[in-house]
């Protein structure tokens, strides 16, 4: 009997341990099973994504076959493709769209560009070009867009007949770009206002000269109009009336003064010399 008691006690300990293990399994088993399942699913997803990525980057299904362009007027598709390095046969998934846009944006005519991938095998390029509004004389001749940005040197093949904006220096533009751009914007505003009030070809504007006192207009016939600052629309209306009056009298002006700030309504005109005086011939 003395030896039987420890043996029974051992059986009891074993039974208690088994029961404790069963309780632990009942309590923690479902959670552990979920954790194992989730781990397995995660490993499967990671492996699957790696295999899927490898397939997408190597499959001929996603090779570039066609690139379409919209918005091109001055820039050419071939030039933009060369700048970007975009070629048929590249994998669409491997394209760096932002890098393609930056490369195409270096073309002087391109103002903004948007590249889009169209799976499985094409790319579209939407281009917004600079619209030249005038020629700015900044040491060299530069094309000026509607936001007063000198975006390109004038080239012989550009074939543009635009109003000149003079009186600004390249050094001033480089040293104080914001101020120079502001003056150029003012000149463009005057140019647009003139075009709205003087549609006639005879009265075509040839030059807008930026001076400390304001703006000077040079018309196609050589007439200089000292516009000064402010009240542009009112001054241009007075200019139209003066030009009509001179025309009705058979006269022409060398200089028309509209810059009298003390008397804004006054117009002073320096008439052109008669033909006999300009050429030295005697009047008939």
From TrEMBL:
InterPro entries: Cell_div_FtsQ/DivIB_C, FtsQ, POTRA, POTRA_FtsQ_type. Pfam families: FtsQ_DivIB_C, POTRA_1. It is a single-pass type II membrane protein. One of its GO terms (cellular component) is cell division site. The keyword Aminoacyl-tRNA synthetase does not apply. Keywords: Cell cycle, Cell division, Cell inner membrane, Cell membrane, Membrane, Transmembrane, Transmembrane helix. Gene3D superfamilies: membrane protein fhac (3.10.20.310). GO terms for biological process: cell septum assembly; FtsZ-dependent cytokinesis. Residues 11-21 have a biased composition (Basic and acidic residues). It comes from the Bacteria. Residues 62-130 form the POTRA domain. It is found in: Cell membrane; Membrane. Residues 1-22 are annotated as: Disordered. Essential cell division protein. Belongs to the FtsQ/DivIB family. FtsQ subfamily. This is Cell division protein FtsQ. It comes from Melittangium boletus DSM 14713. The gene is ftsQ.
